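Appendix B. One record, verbatim.
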Amino acid sequence: DGKVKLIVTATGDDFLECRVEVPGKISNRKGVNTPDSILKISPLTPKDRSDLDYMLEIGVDWVALSFVQRPEDIEEIRAIINEKIPADDPDRFQPSVMAKIEKPSCFDGDRLERIVELCDGIMVARGDLGVECPPEDVPILQKTIVDECRKQGRPVVVATQMLESMIESPTPTRAEASDVATAIYDG
């Protein structure tokens, strides 16, 4: 959740050297955010590919792709789906694809428009966007995503920390209730 912040000061083939900006505890199997970078790697890990194969075998209705940065990421998962389940197969259907928008690189040029065009639905990952870019930009980015989805007639899910206080409390805060209502009214 962006609670620890490091600045890379040196790199090598097998290491990063960092200066700690905001200290905290780190643990295994946690993600790393790179706000100023477009990673030239597939968003699909080997485990994701294995999971996708299984999902296609059992016939899920939707698959979601995290860490989408560019339209080519959606084209990649679509190609895998088309290879496993041809669009003209009368006995099987292809699952719908949802892109999780959590990287500011999605807003470069016409990328968002193209990503929405290639998907069947979009998820606004506000928590990750708030780590990747200044928190005050998140409402503007959320509105931009929702507006583009509405323009193209695509379903959009606004997610992350909508009712966070209800982990501990039986009722939401007034701010959370307002936040949920705004997401519903916008989308």
